[in-house]
Amino acid sequence: MGATVVTGARHAQMPGLTTYDTATVAVLADGFRARGLTFENAAGPGAHQAVAFRSDSDMSVLEHVEFRGHQDTLYARSLRQLYSHCRISGTVDFIFGNAAAVFDSCLIEVVPRLENPEKGERNAVTAHGRTDPSQPTGFVFYNCTVTGSAEYLELYRKKPRVHRVYLGRPWKEYSRTVFVRCYFGEVVRPEGWLPWRGDFALKTLFYGEYGSLGPGANASARVEWSSQIEEEHLGVYSPENFIQGDEWVAC
Fold first, then answer.
1. Mean of the pLDDT values across residues 203-230?
2. C-alpha dihedral, 128 to 130 to 131 to 136, nearest 10°
3. Is 93 one of the annotated active-site residues of the chain?
C-alpha cells in the first residue's frame, strides 16, 4: 500500500527478546499520525511472535497504512487509536493488545501460516487483552473486510476443512471485540470465534457482530458465547463514543 516500506525481522525466538521487543516500529508519543506507509516484520511464518508495529500512542491516527507480518503483526497495546483504510495481514493473533482501537474500512488478510501450509492451521484475526471490566478498551471494526490473501485462498479452496480462520480469541479475561457491517469471506468459520483454551474467559468476554455480510457471515452458527448486537446498542461502539473521536480525530 505504501511506497515507503519500513522493515525489520526481529522475533521472540531471538535470545533476550520478548514479543514487546520485536516491533519494527514502536510509537510511544501521543498524537501520532501516519499515512501512506508500510510497516513490515519479515521474520517469516516460522518465527512465531514478530511485531511489525506497536503503539502506545493516545489519539493516534493511521490512514492508508499497510501492516505486514505473520504472528502478532499489529500490537495495539494501549490507549485510543484509529486505523482508517488500512491493510493488515498476518496469521495468528495478528491484531492484538489492550487498546481502545477503531478500525474503519480496513482490509484484513490471512496469509499462509506454516512453512508447509498445505497441512492446515487455525488462525485467529484478533486477540484483545482487556484485563478488567472497568477498562474502556476493545477493538471495534467498521465496514472492514476479512479474507485471505491470494496464496491463502488457493490453499483454502483445495482443503477447506484444514484451513480455519476465526475472528478472534480471548487473550485476557475480559477481551472485547466487535464487528459492525463487516464483510467476511469464505475463509471465516461458521462458528466465528475460537476459545483460547478450555472455557477460559468465555463467561466474561464480549464478542459481538452487527450486520455482518458475505459467505463467512453466519449468525445462526456462531458460538453461543458470542453476541448479535441490537441496533439500539450500536452507539456505544461509535468512534465518537468509544474513543471520543469527535474531540481529536480531525485535529
1. 97
2. 180
3. yes
